[in-house]
Each structure stands twice: as C-alpha cells, then as structure tokens.
Amino acid sequence: MSSDSLTKISIDDLKPGMYVDSIAEQKGNLQVASRGKVTSRAIVGQLRRRGVLAVIIDPSKQFEPAPEEVEEEAPVESAPAPEPEPEKKKQKLKFDQEIAVANKLHKKGKSIQKQLLNSVAKGLPTDISVPEEFSRNLVGSIDRNPNALLCLTKIREKDDYLLEHSLNVAILLANFAQYIGLEEEIVQELALSGFLHDIGKIKIPDKILHKPGRLTDQEMNIMRDHVVYGIEALEEMQIPERMIRTVGEHHERLDGYGYPEGKRDDEVSFFGRMISIVDVYDALTADRVYKAGMPSQKALQILLKDTPDKYDRDLVQKFIKCIGIYPVGSLVKLSDETIAMVVKHNEDAPLKPVVKVFYNTKGKHYMAPEDVDLSRGTKVTVEKAVLASDYKIDFNTFFEEKIAI
C-alpha cells in the first residue's frame, strides 16, 4: 500500500475500526505506542489522555470491530437522588470518643499512602485491597462522627504535603458526598478516588514537584503529566472505569482550560466536578515548606469567585455549606481573648459553632481544653479566624498530647 493513502486526522475523529499507523501530533513527554488497531472508544480515550492530538491512519486496514469491543462513552453522571436506606442503626459517637480512633486512622492512611507511592515509583504490583479497606474504615469513622477526621485535615506537617493532601481530599470528598445525600457505596468510592487521585505525582521529578517558586511553562507541562501517570497506575490496578474517570478529571475545568484533556461543560462528570472543588480547597489551605496555607474563608471565596467559569456553582455553594463558615479543625479567636478549635457546626447558628477553648492570648499560655457551645447561654462570640502561626502556637504538639488521646 502506498504511503499516499495514509491520512492524518484529529484525535477527535478517531473511531473504533480504524488502524493507526503513527502519531502525528502529541503534547507532553509520555511515550505512546504508535501503531495498531483501535478496537474500542477506551483506546481513543487513553491516547487522548496521553496527549495525542492527531494520528496517521491507514484506511486500507480499516476493520469491523466486534460489537462487544465498541463501548459507549460513559454518560455524565448526575447527582443520584438519595434513596431511602433500610433501617439500620449506625453507632454515633461524641467527638472526644472518636478523635483517638480517627487520629490512628489518619496516621495509618499516611503510611498506606507512602507504601502506594513507593510501589508506583518502583513499578511494583499494588494490592488495591489495602487502600480499599482503609477507605471503608475512613467512611466508618465519618459515620460515627464526621468532625473527628475533618479536624485532622487541619493537622499538617509541612514536609508531608503529598501524603496528607490525598488523605485530606479523601476525607473531605467523603464528607461532601454524605452531605449531599449520596449512597454509602458511592461515598466509599469517592473516598478511595480522593485517596488515589495524586498517585501519579510520584513520577514527577522532585525539583519540579517541590519547587518553591512559579513553574516555567515547560515545568508545568511536566507537572501536568502526573494525571496521566496516575491514570496508568490505576488502570494497572484494575480500578473501576468510573473511578479512573473521576481521578482523571480532578484538574479539568468547566471553561475548557483544565488538563489533561481540556474538557468543558458537560464533558466533566458530576464526580469530576466534586473532586476538582475539594482538591483545590485543600491545596489552597495547606501549609507548604515555602508558604503557609491560607485561611479556609479565603479559599472558599476563591472557589466561589471562579464559578461558574471553572467550577460548578451549585456544588461550590453546597460545599461551602458542608464545610461551614468556620470549618471543623480551624482555629478562631474569641471575644474573651482566647483561642479555640472548632469542633462542630451549628447549622441554625453558623456564626456560633461548638469550640474547644485551649489558649489564652493575654497570658500567652495553654489552658485545659474546654468545650463551649457558642450558641447556648454565653456572651462570648467569634472575633475572627486565625492561624496557629499568628500566635506562635505549636498546635500540632498540643493536639497530640491533650486532645487526640
């Protein structure tokens, strides 16, 4: 067959039944197998995720794909209507009863995350049952008392960002899913998706991953490849396709300026919209080696400002209600010159949460932790949200020694 018959087409025009002779245009740095049959839409999706923009096809080798190989594109998920669950008693515990268990679970999550990253970095097989079981336990803790694990998303170590971020996204995403009424199975699926969403970052060079300043365009292109690396790792683990799609969309934006595929509007799934909101929120509020995290209120304002262009407005508004004006685990200064940690929202009085008072700013000393419901019988009010660094408080140590016990 003469090379004159070969035809260049866009990746958007590639269909099952075509034969790819070579890659014509590609972005990114991933090596892509350049020749073979396109037996399903999944293959087209894989090529697109790997940065392929155009291919050369050989029309003379066109074939009729088997019916079972032609897969329909997955429809955009809409929020499933919450169905009434069978009557079952879920054990509910007070914050102080669950916090020690949640603290151990949080540490175990970081350990599992570290093992997963090491396995992916070395190309070793991964036992997906371990993170699956962890995700079930995580949702179990949220069922007993969601505020315990939410509180732990605020306890950060600057050198553990990669480990803590994925764990925090799992916790926040599971809470968000429960808040909007998704069924238990979906909550667990989203918890696992959040836990695994950044697994591809282990293949990004440290000098780029931990660079303190702004990335160059070339460095940003390399950084963006972490999504594709992550998808490849999850495909090898044989993770369900819907979860892979959720993970693959955590950097997509509704205006089409996200990555890796530049999806826009309804091309971004419902779960993809959820994880993108949670991912950005945790990243903005996280402490890094080179910068302090911003207060939750500012991060939520940024999310709201970027709707509906980048993020789903309805979901952002629901996420803000889920997180609250003063998120659980955040610190606030009270009108009596004390510092307290928020431990519970009061939905009927969002400006008056339940707090755990632990520091006196006048005397500059710690106090025995005491729970105070600001909505009941007290004239004390929240003056403002603060950071531990504002008062040179070693809150992590105090939390370990006096609260998470």
UniProtKB/TrEMBL annotation:
Gene3D superfamilies: Hypothetical protein af1432. Residues 140-335 form the HD-GYP domain. Residues 66-75 have a biased composition (Acidic residues). Coiled coil: none annotated. Pfam families: DUF3391, HD_5. CDD domains: HDc. Residues 64-92 are annotated as: Disordered. PANTHER family: CYCLIC DI-GMP PHOSPHODIESTERASE PA4108, CYCLIC DI-GMP PHOSPHODIESTERASE PA4108-RELATED. This is HD-GYP domain-containing protein. It comes from Alteromonas arenosi.
